[in-house]
Specification:
This protein has helices at 18-35, 55-65, 80-92, 112-120, 138-153, 170-176, 186-189, 216-230, 233-262, 270-302; strands at 5-11, 43-48, 69-74, 97-100, 125-130, 162-169, 197-202, 309-313. By secondary structure, the chain is of the alpha/beta class. It has an 8-stranded mixed beta sheet, with helices on both faces. β2 (43-48), α2 (55-65) and β3 (69-74) form a beta-alpha-beta unit. It starts with a strand and ends with a strand.
């Protein structure tokens, strides 16, 4: 067992948690190196996603003091998914397997060894699965469960209660590198690789310090990106809604004609205004959904790079 392991950690304004996170992750690496389950060349790769605080300075300080702490600085804030991909692609060239984990270490680093064991058993991808969501608020727990069910109903293959805590072999990363799309949703993309997978179950902990980098706005944006990047079902829903509205309009026309023929006609504007508002709302919603897909196409055809690496600190 002489494989090189890279632990890839995307960081954005993480100065409050980073020193402690680095110490804990290095502890896991050193323990596994000592047991011989990974190569002594294994390392920790911290990706600074355009942070505005001392995140990069902390990374540089730890790199200067430790050979197994590497740093990668992006030229600007590119977003969590792009920062993660940038780190994984760098690790792909230097390691045999990589594990991605968020800097706050709410995911249980105690199962990293179990992930590596499953890799040695032949798994190319190992997903970290949350055993429960007891520590989440009622709102977050309900919306997360609803989101997974929504994705499933639209034919998007996802792993329930899995975020971005996973192990990927070099072979898996080679396959992932073939996907050139710019609208990234790794949780939906990686299951498409079709390689042998495994799972480890853990309980998610509390954030040590600082604030979550995924507030409601970003979570909603990720959800929309996940749906529109992997499913055309929203457009089909628009088509079905259009047929339904047409049938309702035909029924209303028949009713209006019968009322006119029987002389049972009342003057008024309420029904007319409501129908105009209803149809106008449906049309605007339809245009918005179609516009989301057109925007995705616009972003893809330009083929702009996902990130630019400003500085890389390795051995």
């Amino acid at each position: 067992m002489n494989e090189i392991l890279a632990i890839v950690v995307p960081c954005y304004n993480e100065e409050e948690v980073l020193p402690d996170s680095i110490t804990k992750l290095r502890g896991v690496l050193n323990e596994m190196k000592g047991s011989g389950s990974i190569s002594k060349k294994s390392f920790l790769l911290l990706v600074d996603d355009g942070s505005k605080d001392r995140t990069w300075e902390i990374i540089k300080e730890n790199h200067d003091n430790s050979d197994d702490v590497w740093g990668q600085k992006l030229s600007k804030n590119c977003g969590h998914q792009s920062a993660l991909v940038s780190g994984l692609m760098t690790a792909r060239e230097r390691a045999d397997l990589s594990i991605s984990i968020d800097a706050d270490l709410q995911d249980d680093i105690g199962v990293i060894k179990e992930m590596v064991d499953k890799y040695h058993d032949g798994c190319e991808i190992v997903y970290g699965i949350r055993g429960s969501r007891k520590k989440d608020s009622f709102f977050k727990r309900t919306t997360a469960q609803g989101f997974y069910k929504l994705l499933s109903s639209m034919g998007v293959k996802t792993i329930y209660n899995h975020a971005d805590f996973r192990l990927m072999s070099k072979k898996a990363l080679d396959e992932l590198s073939l996907y050139k799309e710019s609208n990234l949703y790794l949780r939906g993309l990686i299951p498409l690789l079709g390689l042998k997978t495994g799972e480890v179950v853990y309980e998610r902990g509390e954030r040590m310090a600082g604030e979550s980098k995924y507030p409601l706005k970003k979570m909603l944006a990720l959800a929309v990106n996940g749906i529109t990047s992997f499913s055309t079902e929203p457009i089909k829903i628009i088509q079905k809604t259009g047929v339904l509205v047409l049938l309702v309009c035909l029924a209303a026309a028949v009713y209006a004609f019968i009322s006119y023929m029987t002389g049972n006609v009342e003057k008024g504007w309420t029904s007319l205004i409501l129908s105009i508002w209803f149809l106008g709302g449906v049309q605007l919603l339809a245009i918005g959904v179609i516009g989301e897909y057109v925007g995705k196409i616009y972003g893809e055809v330009k083929q702009r790079p996902l990130y630019h690496i400003e500085e890389l600190l390795d051995k």
